[in-house]
Amino acid sequence: MTPRLDTLPYRHVLTLPTEPAAVRLARETAEQALAEWGVAAHHPVVGPALLILSELVTNSVRHAAAPQTTVIYAASPECLVFAVHDRHPHRPRLYGPSGTGAGGLATVVELTHGPGGTAVVRGDADGLGKSVWITLPL
């Protein structure tokens, strides 16, 4: 389960134009935030987290017909949480019929579950957007 954001001591929000350069900027921002929060670059969850983030932002850039993508970063000493939000109404399935990842999100699911994390898609209240939330243990 994703912890409530207001319970996590470290938080950062980044809103980007939905264009290819957003992937690099989202990743660089994550690296900077993690360093500021005391999460070492060599921590075993950092590499997978950056890859997951890159994949999710890439999906927003490729598939969302929205002008902006928002990335929420948060952490505590026990976990790292991030979400990628866009205003496209399609809510992708993270899991196929047998519990495996679906489509391009298979890598996201595999990298999230490997260290014991969780992945969930949450729709906006108005049904016109969604966020993909990832929680990874530290």
UniProtKB/TrEMBL annotation:
The protein's GO terms of the molecular function aspect are: protein serine/threonine kinase activity
Q: Name one Pfam family in it.
A: HATPase_c
Per the record, the domain of life is Bacteria
The UniProt transmembrane annotation reads none
Q: Which UniProt keywords apply?
A: Kinase, Serine/threonine-protein kinase, Transferase
Q: What sequence ranges are listed for the domain Histidine kinase/HSP90-like ATPase?
A: 51-138
Q: What is this protein called?
A: Histidine kinase/HSP90-like ATPase domain-containing protein
Recorded source organism is Streptomyces griseomycini
